Amino acid sequence: MENSDTNTSAVTTHSGNTPRREDTQDPFNINREQPLTQTQHSTDEPIDAQLQSMLEETQYSQEEKADVNNISVTLGKNIPTIILYGPPASGKTMALLRMIRYLSNQNYRIEPDRNFRPGHDEHYKRMCDGLSTLSRSSYAPGGTDTVGFMLAQVIKEQPICQFLEAPGEHFFNEKVGKGSTDYPTYINEIISSEHNPRIWCFFVERDWGKDQEMREAYAAKIRALYNTAICHRGRPADKVIFLFNKADKYTQYYKDGYPILRSFYNEIQRYYPGIFNEYIRTGIAALLFGKYNFRAVAFSAGTFNGTNDNRTKWQPSENWYCEQFWKAILSCL
What we know:
globular
């Protein structure tokens, strides 16, 4: 696979689990050091009845149903926030659950931030209580409702980072109109926070959306974010990861068992015209810092099969996908 002229840095861990920076390859260079083998030790005990009960009991208050902007949030300081940014049905929830399962088996603790939403928010409490159960289930959960947002912290002695899980409608709503830059209040609070570095993880999939117009509208919203949020004046620019999700659906872009990131990049560029434009350096900046101002990852949460009782059986993906995603995240910290 060809290398570009980009110059990025990655973080690995050494004794004491302290991050250390070292040089790495361009965003399209696959790490082939680890074989594609399943090394996790999952605990898929029968919890289907418990899971179903938890999902059925998860209800929202009238205030939440009426207006998500009425929900206040509290952000802890100095914890990098990984914003899983994607439209409805882009696979963000399953990606988070897969990463929780993987990181738990790598001796990290993943704990919901129970202070993120108000203490009287019973729905959020149930979401926090059920997160571990969802990640260990053999079945995919039902769809996330329009106000099901939460923070999940990755901890090893102390918080390393935190994932923001939120409904796709809060990032991209086709009914709002092309080019809209509106977000719910809680997302705007995260964008404007001076104490929490942000890593934007943009979910893209070649065939997502009902038509080309919808894909172009999603690309336009990601481009608009660069100047309105990612390069916010008075603070360092946020970091960006483009995650090519559900990659294993497109086996024509694999070689020797590994996804060819350059092929995925070219296809996303073709289906989402201009989506990378703001994230590619030119001129002197490209010479000094490299062409690509983002990381790229091919990802799969696993395979999903419908059952006769209207559930979806989940077989988690190979650990390798999670390893690559986690390495990209660490390189941004």
